[in-house]
């Protein structure tokens, strides 16, 4: 029968083993607790980030709505109401044909305003045609050159809508503030990216001045929605050039 020569030594090693097992268990427990705490903190950060993003999107949406309301009020006051008021004042001084022509012009302005404010049917029309239709209406008042190169690909509705609204915003700013006689619009769509370029020969402005904020916050909000990168170049009396690029997300 095998007997241990030193039972005390065996007992000592047993206690050392128990102690090591206990310390290992405590260490593993602490690591698990810290890991769970880290997961909870990261989860809270993600939740807060999502909330901040939702708040920012909501603020941008409200801003865009307010911009549309301001634009509608401005167009109604400066163009349509003014024209109708002139027609009323000239009813006794103009003949029927002249009054009829003035009414037709007012009706055309109302149609253009309705077209600009109404969301287009994005599933039924390509972005190139959407922009072309809009520029055809504007082209009666200014020379517009429109070039587009398109690879056979589809564009997601958010990209299509926001690019179209950016075009509207830029062209409107040119017509109101630039004193330009020509606008060049270029649209290039490949399998990987979409690039939009809008350039005018107007008065331009010094970047960093207060003019730099007129209408550009609206453009910035729409660019952020589709993760577009854009750049605006302008110099006094040298016109303004806008370039935007966005990765393609197929519909």
TrEMBL record:
<keyword id="KW-1133">Transmembrane helix</keyword>
<keyword id="KW-0418">Kinase</keyword>
<protein>
    <recommendedName>
        <fullName>histidine kinase</fullName>
        <ecNumber>2.7.13.3</ecNumber>
    </recommendedName>
</protein>
<keyword id="KW-0902">Two-component regulatory system</keyword>
<dbReference type="GO" id="GO:0004673">
    <property type="term" value="F:protein histidine kinase activity"/>
</dbReference>
<feature type="domain" description="Histidine kinase/HSP90-like ATPase">
    <location>
        <begin position="162"/>
        <end position="244"/>
    </location>
</feature>
<dbReference type="GO" id="GO:0000160">
    <property type="term" value="P:phosphorelay signal transduction system"/>
</dbReference>
<keyword id="KW-0812">Transmembrane</keyword>
<keyword id="KW-0808">Transferase</keyword>
<keyword id="KW-0472">Membrane</keyword>
<dbReference type="InterPro" id="IPR036890">
    <property type="entry name" value="HATPase_C_sf"/>
</dbReference>
<dbReference type="InterPro" id="IPR003594">
    <property type="entry name" value="HATPase_dom"/>
</dbReference>
<feature type="transmembrane region" description="Helical">
    <location>
        <begin position="12"/>
        <end position="36"/>
    </location>
</feature>
<dbReference type="Pfam" id="PF02518">
    <property type="entry name" value="HATPase_c"/>
</dbReference>
<dbReference type="InterPro" id="IPR050482">
    <property type="entry name" value="Sensor_HK_TwoCompSys"/>
</dbReference>
């Amino acid at each position: 029968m095998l007997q241990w020569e030193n039972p005390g030594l065996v007992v000592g090693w047993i206690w050392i083993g128990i102690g090591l097992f206990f310390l290992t268990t405590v260490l593993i427990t602490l690591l698990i607790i810290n890991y769970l705490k880290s997961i909870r903190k990261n989860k809270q950060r993600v939740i807060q980030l999502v909330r901040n993003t939702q708040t920012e999107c909501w603020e941008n949406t409200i801003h865009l709505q307010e911009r549309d309301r301001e634009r509608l009020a401005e167009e109604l006051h400066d163009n349509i109401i003014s024209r109708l008021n002139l027609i009323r004042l000239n009813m006794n001084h103009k003949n029927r044909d002249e009054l009829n022509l003035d009414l037709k012009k007012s009706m055309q302005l109302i149609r253009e305003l309705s077209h600009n404010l109404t969301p287009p049917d994005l599933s039924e029309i390509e972005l190139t045609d959407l922009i072309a239709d809009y520029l055809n209406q504007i082209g009666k008042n200014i020379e517009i050159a429109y070039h587009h190169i398109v690879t056979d690909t589809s564009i997601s509705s958010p990209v299509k809508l926001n690019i179209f609204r950016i075009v509207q915003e830029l062209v409107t700013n040119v017509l109101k503030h630039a004193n330009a006689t020509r606008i060049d619009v270029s649209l290039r769509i490949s399998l990987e990216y979409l690039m939009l370029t809008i350039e005018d020969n107007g008065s331009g402005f010094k970047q960093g001045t207060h003019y730099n904020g007129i209408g550009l916050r609206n453009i910035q909000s729409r660019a952020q929605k589709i993760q577009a990168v854009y750049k605006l170049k302008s110099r006094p009396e040298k016109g303004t050039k806008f370039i935007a690029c966005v990765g393609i997300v197929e519909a």
